[in-house]
Amino acid sequence: MARVVVDVMLKPEILDPQGQAVQRALPRLGFEGIADVRQGKRFELEVEGPVDDAALARIHEMAETFLANTVIENFTVRVDS
Amino acid sequence: MARVVVDVMLKPEILDPQGQAVQRALPRLGFEGIADVRQGKRFELEVEGPVDDAALARIHEMAETFLANTVIENFTVRVDS
Amino acid sequence: MTLDTVKHAGETPDTEQPWAELGLKQDEYERIRSILGRRPTGAELAMYSVMWSEHCSYKSSKVHLRQFGEKAPENDALLVGIGENAGVVDVGQGYAVTFKVESHNHPSYIEPYQGAATGVGGIVRDILAMGARPVAVMDPLRFGAADHPDTKRVLPGVVAGIGGYGNCLGLPNIGGEVVFDACYQGNPLVNALCVGVMKHEDIHLAKASGAGNKVILYGARTGGDGIGGVSVLASETFDDSKPTKRPAVQVGDPFQEKLLIECTLEIFREDLVDGIQDLGGAGLSCATSELASAGSGGMRVELDRVHLRDATLSPEEILMSESQERMCAIVEPGKVDRFLEICEKWDVIATVIGEVTDGERLEIFWHGEQIVDVPPRTVAHEGPVYERPYARPDWQDALQADDANKLARPATAEELREQVLKVISSPNQASKSWITDQYDRFVQGNTVLAQPEDSGMVRIDEDTNLGVAVATDGNGRYAKLDPYAGAQLALAESYRNVAASGARPLAISNCLNFGSPEDPAVMWQFAEATRGLADGCLTLGTPVTGGNVSLYNQTGETAIHPTPVVAVLGVIDDVNRRTPIAFSDEGHLLYLLGDTKEELGGSAWSQVVHDHLGGLPPAVDLDREKLLGEILISASRDGMVDAAHDLSDGGLIQALAESCLRGGKGARVVVPDGIDPFVLLFSESAGRAVVAVPRSEELRFTDMCGARGLPAARIGVVDGEAIDIQGQFSIPLAELREAHEATIPALIA
Amino acid sequence: MTARVGVVTFPGTLDDRDTQRAVRIAGLEPVPLWHRDKDLKQVDAVVLPGGFSYGDYLRAGAISRFSPVMETVIEQARGGMPVLGICNGFQVLTETHLLPGAMLRNNHLHFICRDQKLRVENADTAWTSDYEAGQEISVPLKNIDGRYVADERTLDELEAEGRVAFRYLDGNPNGSLRDIAGITNAAGNVVGLMPHPEHAVEPGVGTGRTDGLGFFTSILKKLVNA
Ligand SMILES: Nc1ncnc2c1ncn2[C@@H]1O[C@H](COP(=O)(O)OP(=O)(O)O)[C@@H](O)[C@H]1O
Ligand SMILES: [Mg+2]
Question: How much distance in Å is there from the Cα of C511 to the middle of ligand 1?
Answer without folding.
Answer: 9
